[in-house]
Amino acid sequence: MSSTVFNADKAHIEADWWRAAVIYEVYVRSFSDANGDGTGDLAGVRSRLPYLRDLGIDALWFSPWYLSPMADGGYDVADYRAIDPAFGTLEEAEGLIAEAAAVGIRTIVDIVPNHISDQHAWFRAALAASAESPERERFWFRPGRGIGGIEPPNGWISHFGGPAWSRTRDPDGRPGDWYLHLFAPGQPDLNWEHPEVRTGFEEILRFWFDRGAAGVRIDSAALLVKDPELPDVGEGRSPESHPFIDRDELHDIYRGWRVVADSYADPRVLVGEIWLDDHERMTRYLRPDELHSAFNFDFLVCPWDPKHLRASIDATIEAHLPVGAPPTWVLSNHDVTRPVTRYGRADTSFSFQAKRHGVPTDLELGTRRARAAALLAMALPGSFYLYQGEELGLPEVETIPLDRIQDPMHFRTGGVDPGRDGCRVPLPWKGSEPPYGFSPDVVETWLPQPKDWSRLSVAAQETDPGSMLALYQSALSLRRRYLSRLPSPLEWMASPSDVLSFRRGAFACVANLSLEPFPLPAHKELLITSAEAIDGNLPPQATAWLHLSESTTDQPEWEIAAGTFSHTTEGVIGG
Ligand code: GLC
Question: pTM here?
Answer without folding.
Answer: 0.94
